[in-house]
Amino acid sequence: METLKFKTTINCGGCISTVTPTLNKIAGTDNWNVDINSVDKILTIHTNQITPKQIQEAVQSLGFQISQL
Fold first, then answer.
1. Distance CA 25, CA 23 (A)
2. Which of 1, 7, 43, 61 is most buried as measured by Cβ atoms within 10 A of its Cβ?
3. E strand intervals along the chain
4. What does the pLDDT look like over 14-67, one tens digit per residue?
5. Whether 6 contacts 68, CB under 8 Å
6. What CATH number does the domain located at 2-68 have?
7. Is the dihedral of CA 51, 57, 24, 20 positive or negative?
8. Is residue 13 within a helix (H) or strand (E), and if so which, with residue range?
9. 3-class SS at 65?
10. Distance separating the N- and C-terminal Cα atoms of the chain
């Protein structure tokens, strides 16, 4: 399983609530998390099925900025 990390603007519980349905759908319920306590608000995804581009497009479509680390 590959681990992908992204710097994001997902910075609070409300933001996590916004991205949860989409990330659960594309990555799986237990395959992602966001460290909102980190300065860079790191989104970590464990996957073998989706590309970094797919993740970035999904998160950007919800109004957040994201860049792969």
1. 5
2. 43
3. 2-8, 32-35, 42-47, 66-68
4. 999 999 999 999 999 899 999 999 999 999 999 988 999 999 999 999 999 999
5. yes
6. 3.30.70.100
7. positive
8. helix 13-27
9. coil
10. 17
Give the residues across from 66 on adjacent strands.
8
Both tokens assigned to 4: 């992908």
Q: What pTM was computed for the model?
A: 0.92
Q: Do 63 and 2 touch, CB atoms closer than 8 A?
A: no
What the block records as the tokens of 53 is 């581009």
For position 45, what pLDDT does the model report? 96
In the chain, what are the domain boundaries? 2-68
Decide: 42 and 35 in contact? Cβ < 8 Å: yes
Point out which residues pair with 8 in neighbouring strands: 66
Q: How far apart are CA 25 and CA 18, in angstroms?
A: 13
Query: What is the length of the chain?
Result: 69
The answer to whether the Cα torsion of 15, 10, 55, 53 is positive or negative is positive
